[in-house]
Amino acid sequence: MRDLEDKVAIITGSSRGIGRVIADVLSRKGCSIIINYKSNFEGAKETLKLVESNNSKGLIVQADISQYKEGRELVKKVIDYFGTIDYLVNNAAAPGPQRRAEKISPEEWAETLATNPKIEIGICGEVDYTDEQIKRLINVDYLSVSLDRFVYTRVQSARNN
User: Fold this and answer.
1) Would you kindly state where each structural domain of the chain is located, as residue ranges?
2) Burial of 56 (C-beta count, 10 Å sphere; 0-12/13-18/19+)
3) What is the pLDDT of residues 45-82, one digit of tens each?
């Protein structure tokens, strides 16, 4: 059932992983997908192929959304191209150090904690919620038991509280 026909979703970090899966699910329901990536263009092209194989529209937009200017430009491109944003799926995040918690310096903790909120603010601050420019905001959170991903999972948990 294509019950999201004529809907538009920005999915941050959709060049791979959970973002790609979300793009697949929404495009199967007819949603047009904005594939946002920071540096994985090849992955973004793969996600676009997947979206198009589901007979939905896709648009690849490169933007480092932790940078406010790039977040603004992403929103403007989507509005110019599609005229609306029905869903904003905040999936992108900086993973932080990939080693055991006891081996992570206070500086690395601070950098990761400072970067991830900027990712959401960088794009969310550009959307006009009062004029219903966007209908739904979805924040993706990750839960993991891996000690090697300790900082990342703690930051993801904190951003949703």
Assistant:
1) 8-93+120-141
2) buried
3) 999 999 999 999 999 999 988 787 888 888 889 988 99
